[in-house]
Amino acid sequence: MAQTLDVIIIGAGSAGLAALREVRKHSENFLLINDGHYGTTCARVGCMPSKALIEAANAYHRRHAFEAFGIRGGGGLSIDPAAVLRRVRALRDDFVAGTLKATDELGERNLAARAKLLAPDTVAAGGREYRARRIIIASGSRPIVPDAWRAFGDRILTSDTLFEQAVLPRRMAVVGLGAIGVEIAQALSRLGVEVTAFGSNPQLAGLSDEAVHQTLAELLQREFSLHTGAAAELSPAADGIELRSGDVRVVVDQVIAAMGRRPNVDGIGLETLGVELDSRGMPPVNPNTLQVGDLPVFLAGDANGRAALLHEAADEGHIAGINASAAEPRCFRRRTPLAIVFADPNVAVVGRRFAELDGETIVVGQVSFARQGRARTAQRNKGLMRLYADRASGRLLGGEMCAPAAEHMVHLLALAIERELTVQDLLRLPFYHPVIEEGMRSALRELSAQLPAGQDSDLASCGGYQAEALD
Amino acid sequence: MAQTLDVIIIGAGSAGLAALREVRKHSENFLLINDGHYGTTCARVGCMPSKALIEAANAYHRRHAFEAFGIRGGGGLSIDPAAVLRRVRALRDDFVAGTLKATDELGERNLAARAKLLAPDTVAAGGREYRARRIIIASGSRPIVPDAWRAFGDRILTSDTLFEQAVLPRRMAVVGLGAIGVEIAQALSRLGVEVTAFGSNPQLAGLSDEAVHQTLAELLQREFSLHTGAAAELSPAADGIELRSGDVRVVVDQVIAAMGRRPNVDGIGLETLGVELDSRGMPPVNPNTLQVGDLPVFLAGDANGRAALLHEAADEGHIAGINASAAEPRCFRRRTPLAIVFADPNVAVVGRRFAELDGETIVVGQVSFARQGRARTAQRNKGLMRLYADRASGRLLGGEMCAPAAEHMVHLLALAIERELTVQDLLRLPFYHPVIEEGMRSALRELSAQLPAGQDSDLASCGGYQAEALD
Questions:
Q1: What is the pLDDT of residues B418-450, one digit of tens each?
Q2: Average model confidence (pLDDT) for chain A?
Q3: A120, A273 in Cβ contact below 8 A?
Q4: I need a labelling partner for A263 at 20 to 30 A (CA). Which of A375, A401, B169, B220 fits?
């Protein structure tokens, strides 16, 4: 066995590369071990190609608003799914190229192999054993596909394979209606595929607020066939795959499995770490340090099964990289929770979810975008936003929504929650006119009306404020 | 002369109606006097119809991205300007109807007449004199049109008349390239009009940062002919109106005057108030109370010539209404400055303008959206954002930009400026992936790198933060 390394990083995805950036600030005596594709899940098969697909689908879908706007000839538009997918892959290749730069220059310190832990300081890979003072496991995740479905071969797709298709079939089923399932089902439907979607969970897209969920379900049902609350079973049919779920029977050409992602830690040797594993086979991980128990081992990104979100994975790699380079692990405060589903209208959850809150201690303010001024001028007046505030303090706690421009508004709401601002603080914002954010202000005002601190103005009194000259 | 009224409000626009709401909380002994149209400038001829026009223009313009997306047949689209304008007016009528509700029910307390001040407590209108304990002047503004242009009759348009047109001519000139001029010039060009635009001010759309201005000018010049830095002169031509500006000569069918707005206070009798008027004929007004000198008179909204912005006018009416109903005027802190021009990409200025800042005491961070990931997937990757922070404290001070989704991002930036947050505070936000806001984060990181407080992480240390359970 060679010299002891400072750090071994297992996985060259978003978390692993974020860790690498930190490790390299302190040491060049590291080894990056990666099994399978380089280029990150996000850039290769996740966030980026899905957004490229969605943007094309939404641009095409917009033709339904054309007649009302005064634009003629929309009926003559058609979509070329092969061209759409070629563009998706071209963009994907460019985004992937960006991530490859980080590993291309590493030479022998980048090992393409499957890693297996032998002990908290030892890793086997490529037929050799490596020792290290610290180990960062950032081995990512993969889509869940039921074993029985494998018999259908390449007629079962996941986000790993969807974007590789040369064309799209006439009929597709999407099974699983979390973030990925909802995004893909809507996009494929807008690209002309006859989509039938199944979610075993009664709630869509990670929502927990029934009112918002209902709004989303109604909007999606106008676009494609949607079935929730029961699992879907597959069987071969003469002209495709038959899916059965409750009373529903449908035959499709391909099925997309969007039933969540599984951490790539099976077979990685977590049992050799000497810490107790939970029922899912996962070790204890401190989310503020990413340390596994009190071992010199860190488990970051999708691999720890916490949240398969790029910005969280990047933070976790960053924290793990800093802590793997330090004498003592530091404790980092995690960011305000934020999840966005890039459906149209956007779906988003920020801060505390409705289901986590005690109905007795909160007030709820809401706004429908059906009559919202700016949304009407843009023909995007669909959706519902619900915000939650603490009844006693007036602090904004969270929100769930299915609303135009939600992907933007939730960043503002996240800042407010992160800074522990009150509803009144937010009402002191300038809300320009006319903007979608004025809808959010309506929800804030509905909250304000239920809060005790009754004020006669959204504006602050001057206090020590210097009066400005008028001119 | 009848009984003394509590309050007279002159003007039933956005400021006057906001004042009315406050006044009515305390008294029903008021009189609203309005000259000309009811329905507010914003709803009738301003923010709302312009946005309806812009949204149609942008939806049509989007066809240029279709081939790249994989959408075929975009060449067969056409625009029906008459239908566009009919939709604008239909939406306008609906928005106007919303504002009319506030005055419809007032009966005799709503007087349609021109008001003239006779003294700080006396107004003449409709052949009568009215006395009041307080007077709120909220008489609005009107577009500036040079007298010499009136000879061209209805071939000279303003935002008051543009939306009334049944159709659009082949060739139009837009003179004045502030917010309204830039919005209208781009929209008309996108609707198929051959637009030539002239701005006597070298800067476009209220920008003061040359780098942002340059980006905007380049983008607009790809769409229509743009000339800045010299006034335009009009003369009759055989087949239209000739405009000359510097070396430029162009003949058009109609000219839109977008040279700013003038307060409707000429002839209203400000000289009877007994306070000194400035060179523009305007009395001293405290922007935090809206009081004129120490008189029982308030001057709110566009009428005071401060800023012709709906959200400011509404605030000013609100403040004037509260103060006209109180024993002593209260001092209100005004909101963080915010101006948005609904061009594509959006133009916006938030907080302190670049020109107001001392280059020695600030740092500048910027991002180009040309290579921004999400913007590329959406084919909206154009623009530049520049942010300014205080070098000593790291506080965000302001920003100027021409960027996709700027109308959304500036609300977040306004909140940060309002709360006196630092660049580091903002970097603690969750930035979801992939969003346009990640471009803003790049600008923030560029700021952060120039600030002294060098930290190795955007994340906060835990401090007293309770570690979360992983599951």
A1: 999 999 999 999 999 999 999 999 999 999 999
A2: 95
A3: yes
A4: A401
H helices of B24-80, in order, are 41-45, 47-61, 66-69
Min distance B23 CA to chain A CA atoms (Å): 12
Q: Tokens in use for A97?
A: 């190229």
Question: A-chain residues within 8 Å CB-CB of B311?
Answer: 430-433
Residue B53: closest CA among chain A residues belongs to which residue? A377
Tell me if B463 and A333 make a contact (CB, 8 A cut-off): yes
Mean pLDDT of the A346-351 span: 98
Backbone angles phi, psi at A382, to 5 degrees: -140, 140
**Which among A42, A52, A465 is the nearest to B333, CB-wise?**
A465
Mapped onto helix, strand or coil, the DSSP state of residue A233 is strand
What are the CB-based long-range contacts (under 8 Å, 24+) for A143-147? A143/A257, A143/A258, A143/A259, A143/A260, A143/A261, A143/A262, A144/A257, A144/A259, A144/A260, A144/A261, A144/A262, A145/A257, A145/A259, A146/A257, A146/A259
Give the separation between CA A173 and CA B230, rounded to whole angstroms: 62
Decide whether B5-143+262-324 matches B147-260 in CATH topology. Answer: yes
In angstroms, the CA A465 to CA A470 distance is 15
- Which residues pair with residue B78 across a beta bridge? A72
Share of chain B above pLDDT 70, in %: 97
CA-to-CA separations, B338 to A5, A442, B18, B320, B374, in angstroms, rounded: 54, 19, 20, 21, 25
Q: B436, A408: Cβ pair inside 8 Å?
A: yes
Domain extents in chain B:
5-143+262-324, 147-260, 338-450
Q: CB neighbours (10 Å) of residue A391?
A: 16
A147-260: which CATH architecture?
3-Layer(bba) Sandwich (3.50)
Q: Are B103 and B32 in contact (CB under 8 A)?
A: yes
Q: Record the tokens describing residue A323, joined without a space.
A: 């802590």
Q: Taking 60 as the threshold, does the pLDDT of residue B1 lie above it?
A: no
Interchain pair B42, A332: CB under 8 A: no
Region of residue A389 (phi > 0: left; psi between -120 and 50: alpha; otherwise: beta): beta
Mean pLDDT of B78-101: 96
- Per residue in B102-126, pLDDT (tens digit) is 999 999 999 999 999 999 999 999 9
Residues of A in contact with B318 (CB under 8 A): 457, 459
Longest dimension (CA), chain A: 80
Instruction: Give the CA count within 13 Å in the CB-facing half-sphere of B197.
Output: 32
* CA distances for A250 relative to A23, A155, A244, angstroms: 52, 15, 7
The pLDDT of residue A424: 96
- Partners of B167 in beta bridges: none
User: Does the A338-449 domain belong in CATH 3.30.390.30?
Assistant: yes
- In tens, the pLDDT along B299-320 reads 999 999 998 999 999 999 999 9
Q: How far apart are CA B44 and CA B38, in angstroms?
A: 9
Q: Is the pLDDT of residue B466 over 70?
A: no
Kindly report the CATH class assigned to B338-450. Answer: alpha beta
Pairing of strands B128-137, B122-125: antiparallel
Q: How would DSSP label each residue in A448-468? A: HHTSSS--S-SSPB-TTPPPP
Shortest CA distance to B72 belongs to which of A80, A234, A36, A437? A80
Residue type, A44: R
CB contacts, 8 Å: B55 with chain A: 69, 377-379
Please state which of the four CATH numbers 3.50.50.60, 3.40.50.10800, 3.40.710.10, 3.40.50.1240 is assigned to the domain occupying A5-142+262-324: 3.50.50.60
Closest Cα of chain A to B245: distance in Å? 31
What pLDDT is attached to residue A3?
Answer: 82
